[in-house]
# Entry
Amino acid sequence: MADAPVVAGLARGQLHELYYWMRLTRTLEEKLVALYRQTKVVGGLFRSLGQEADAVGSAYALDRTRGDILSPLIRNLGSMLVQGATPIEVLRQYMAKADGPTHGRELNIHFNDLDRGFLGQTSHLGDMVPVMCGVTMSFKLRREPRVGLVYVGDGAMSTGAFHEGINFAAVQRLPLVIIAENNGYAYSTPMAKQTAVRFLADKAAGYGVAAEQADGNDVVAVYETTRRAVERARAGGGVTLVELITFRRKGHAEHDNQSYVTREELDAWEARDPIDRYVRRLTESGWATAAELATIDARVSGEVDQAVAACENEPLPEGASALTGVFADPPAADLEWYRRL
Amino acid sequence: MALVTFLEAIRDGLREEMERDERVFLMGEDIGSFGGAFKVTEGLQDRFGAERVIDTPIAETAFIGAAAGAAHMGFRPVCEVQFIDFLSCAYSILTNYVATARYRAGLKTSLVVRGPSGGYVRGGPFHSQNPEAAYLHTPGLKIVAPATVRDAKGLIKAAIRDDDPVLYFEHKYLYRRIKDDLPYGEDIVTPIGKARLAREGKHLTVVSWSAMVWKVLEAAETLEKEGVSVEVIDLRSLLPFDEESIVTSVKKTNRVLVVHEDTRTGGMAGEITARINERCFEWLDAPVRRVCAHDVPLPYAPTLEDFVLPQTDDIVKAARWMVEY
Ligand SMILES: Cc1ncc(C[n+]2csc(CCOP(=O)(O)OP(=O)(O)O)c2C)c(N)n1
Ligand SMILES: [Mg+2]
# Structure
């Protein structure tokens, strides 16, 4: 049977999908680097190199047919793609295009579509934990069997907003999964200067919530672990703090040469690259053939190239379009005072 | 008709909106069976249940952030901040996340944050603040501050129905001190952004809001005996504020005094003065003046608090100066 589960409840087709999303994440980011170097990306560029399994595997554990919603961080491009964000939306965001999802108002992957199941982050670290409390409260109040998932970094977990949010979610027993991404660093700050706990999952005990931990570079393990937390949440079991151990293999953003990380550390993590590892596992286990993977690679390249070609030369928004939509009413900011000058 | 206090008018407004719209729910500290620090929500948990009147941890960032998340999903949450002084704990999520959500992301963010503000109650530096100016500077927020029982009800109802986030500052001095007859069954909704003409006059316009309106009206009585006719504008909404009503009145009286309980530097009076300069400078017969609190944290001792906060006498003196100018 083609769709019988082969590992972690995943069928062959699903295993191929996981590969597709990880490959799409990496290829899209590589394309963005090229555009950044051509100064076509207006602001900074953030990579998730080495963290694709963390993003993709965790998002894949949600149920899109039931309306689960996640809130990503800057290194969760893969999570956004899994939930249905498209390469052209991401490209338009980075290039500040008028036709982008936020029409040039917000940058990078800061955009939402609650129908597709993603609520874009804002820059203030930790804030999305309280906000996702409210989203999951709405599920609870309406008796909907939906689950929310929110990402926090090892750095973001030091914020007051994270603490207030996880505590609130725990007390309210909200159907919320919190993914703690332990990628070693917050900008230049190593985790040891961020917290005195050995593992981020250790913090769960202080909030009275369930804890899980997984190898963040093993997409199947990430999926399986997150899936358990998602099912717990859906069954009314409340919050789980899931720690995914991975590594940020690029600087904080493209401008950062990561001088504070040793070559040895980078090499060690490169050897654990989540995509290379998954390719080996897929082929050695007979879950995919090299030819099948090559077909996926070609499809990904085609999709990314097509998206770039379609929006690269699009215009930026008109200046005066900045004035609309601060409020539902009034619909636009006052221009009269400016005209009177 | 029913004689209700300022506080009861707020509670009635909340109850009526919860009855007419099941998307409305309340969150805050001690607001459930205890009924809130000032008992504004007393009886509401009995009436609507613990799912719609939710006791929260002491976590202003968490419950205001959660209100935003629920609002995105179509709810209309109302948060009580136990004393509005503690709203600053949620300053970041309110100004960065909540206020920008519609603009940057097109997210529905209809929520209300309400709480007791203001001094004259010997509350000391952290239970007496009027922090309106801290939020005035945030595009995306609305701010209202009722002075009357009718507007206490009308503005809470309007705030809940508004599609954008509204801060509702309720002056605790007024809670049980003022009463009014409100007709049963009337759906009182005060439009946000529209001032109220609290008293008609010819010689001088005084712009004020919240509890200060009552001191201004008291001053106006004294001045009337001296032959000075004072027009009093109760602004009611601070963001957006009713520039037109001020301009119309300035063109009539040619003199304006702005009176607020908040401290002077960076206060709302500065913005009102700037708008008057932009719109009707040539109609003025005297400089715009203001009566505000001194620029100090609000102290506790009655002698100190009374010195720092504007008093009726300060308003009378400033008004005399203006008409003699
Ligand atoms: C409240 C707040 N303070 C500072 C920053 C600036 N900043 C952006 S990302 C970052 C590091 C985040 O580290 P972490 O949470 O570990 O996420 P990672 O970048 O490793 O994915 C900092 C300090 C911010 N965005 N928000
Ligand atoms: Mg980190």
Remarks:
- Residues 6-20 of chain B form the longest helix (15 residues).
- The first strand of chain B starts at residue 2 and ends at 5.
